[in-house]
């Protein structure tokens, strides 16, 4: 049986998180997928062309069709919605949800959108019965650390050293958690 997740929507004061449509590729290319600073701590590489971005959009649509909370982040503007990134989470067990990644374009960092995204994901998880929400970040990703700290997450544990398959750089993942009451 195939579950239809097309109606999943999470909204904050400035953002709407929902499933993407193919036409979003252009805004995502301009705002995030062509921007090297966006991919620095992620396990994806930037798109070097519009064609690569269109191919990524097809993969995104497929992934989002299979994962309930794999969503595209849209900024509410006077002229409509602008696709600025992604946010995703999944249920680990009935009491625990975890983030699967939050990424917004560099022009949208430092404006409180990350906090809105993470807090909204936690609230949705709580509504679904979660008692804990787990996050992680690469140890050198200080922006993600600050975001998780600001949203009330506490240190849980560190991973063993890993190797980034894109860059061959060594890194450690810091895992955090927050109790949802």
Report the principal-axis shape. globular
CATH hierarchy, class of the domain at 9-131: Alpha Beta
Number of helices: 5
Major β-sheet, in short?
A: 8 strands, mixed
> What fraction of the residues are assigned to beta strands by DSSP?
25-35%
Q: Could you name the CATH homologous superfamily of the domain at 9-131?
A: Gcn5-related N-acetyltransferase (GNAT)
Q: What structural class is derived from the secondary structure elements?
A: alpha+beta
Our Rg estimate from Cα atoms comes to 16 Å
Element-by-element helix/strand order: EEHHHEEEHEHEEEE
CATH topology of the domain at 9-131: Aminopeptidase
Helix content: 25-40%
Label the CATH architecture of the domain at 9-131: 3-Layer(aba) Sandwich
Placed side by side, the strands forming the largest sheet appear as: 1-2-3-4-5-6-10-7
Give the uncertain stretches in residue-range form.
Answer: none
**Total beta-strand segments:** 10
Organism: Agathobacter ruminis
GO molecular function: acyltransferase activity, transferring groups other than amino-acyl groups
Domain N-acetyltransferase: 30-181
Protein name: GNAT family N-acetyltransferase
């Amino acid at each position: 049986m195939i579950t239809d997740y097309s109606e999943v929507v999470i909204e904050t004061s400035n953002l709407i998180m929902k499933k993407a449509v193919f036409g979003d590729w252009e805004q995502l290319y301009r705002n995030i997928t062509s921007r090297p600073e966006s991919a620095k701590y992620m396990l994806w590489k930037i798109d070097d062309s519009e064609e690569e971005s269109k191919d990524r959009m097809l993969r995104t649509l497929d992934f989002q069709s299979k994962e309930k909370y794999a969503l595209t982040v849209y900024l509410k503007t006077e002229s409509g919605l602008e696709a600025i990134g992604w946010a995703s989470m999944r249920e680990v067990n009935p009491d625990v949800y975890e983030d699967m990644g939050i990424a917004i374009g560099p022009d949208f960092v430092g404006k409180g959108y990350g906090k809105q995204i993470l807090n909204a994901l936690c609230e949705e998880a709580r509504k679904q019965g979660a008692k804990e929400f787990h996050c992680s970040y690469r140890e050198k990703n200080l922006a993600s650390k600050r975001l998780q700290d600001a949203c009330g997450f506490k240190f849980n544990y560190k991973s063993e050293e890993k190797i980034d398959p894109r860059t061959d750089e060594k890194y450690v993942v810091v895992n955090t958690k927050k109790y949802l009451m």
